[in-house]
């Protein structure tokens, strides 16, 4: 199916995701959560919730090396393993039988993953710029150890404050606001529907953090594997409920 523009994307690591990718979006807590508390999961009187099925893209050549791979450097394609992961995710999502739309980050690894699913479901792929990964600036393409060796002061400052961007890059606070805006835009466009969002470590962790109303530090404690699935539901009263996180049962 064709890829179209919807709107109006480096996977790195952390204490939760080894390597630079998991340090994502500690500033997201400064963005509006759009949630007044815990969505207890019943809420039958609130009507059909909107459901985001969140899929991290499959592996690229940089993923197993745990290199900063964001939106400001190269735009790597899926590796052979990554393509297989995308097909496995597509099979699992087809078995769900409820995906009504597919929305992707504009970066190639996500578009390829999203297309594998969309082809299986007979859907188009929409692109939302808000789902792209953090721009890691001078850290792009480096391992955490290499970034520490070459940009020690800048790396320490970046890790210490969500408002600090890597040289030439993007702060986590900025990413948090961008992702929250994309969430609100997509909820408004797909009320009561189940949609697949294909994105990266930072945006997906940010959506989970915002749904839980958790502190920014929670992002350091989340493990998100390549081609993993998460599910968040949003209710009309503004509450959100995390249903699944880092599900890799479809991978083999």
Strand order of the largest sheet: 1-4-3-5-2-6-7
User: What is the CATH topology classification name?
Assistant: Rossmann fold
The number of distinct structural domains comes to: 1
Percentage of residues in strands: 5-15%
* CATH superfamily label: Phosphoglycerate mutase-like
Multimer state: single chain
Which whole number gives the mean pLDDT? 84
Radius of gyration: 17 Å
Q: What structural class is derived from the secondary structure elements?
A: alpha/beta
Largest sheet descriptor: 7 strands, mixed
Name the poorly predicted regions.
Answer: 1-10, 12-43
Describe the structure.
With 252 residues, the chain is α/β, with parallel strands linked by helices. It has one domain (3-36, 49-247): Rossmann fold (3-Layer(aba) Sandwich). Helices cover 31% and strands 15% of the residues. It has 6 helices and 7 strands, in the order ββαβαβαααβαββ. It has helices at 80-96, 108-121, 144-150, 152-160, 172-189, 201-212, and strands spanning 3-5, 50-56, 101-104, 125-127, 194-199, 229-234, 240-247. It has a 7-stranded mixed sheet with strand order 1-4-3-5-2-6-7, with helices on both faces. A hairpin with a 5-residue loop joins strand 6 (229-234) and strand 7 (240-247). Helix 5 (172-189) crosses helix 6. The two termini are 26 Å apart.
Secondary structure blueprint with pairings:
Layout: E1 3-5, E2 50-56, H1 80-96, E3 101-104, H2 108-121, E4 125-127, H3 144-150, H4 152-160, H5 172-189, E5 194-199, H6 201-212, E6 229-234, E7 240-247
Parallel strand pairs: 1-4, 2-5, 3-4, 3-5
Antiparallel strand pairs: 2-6, 6-7
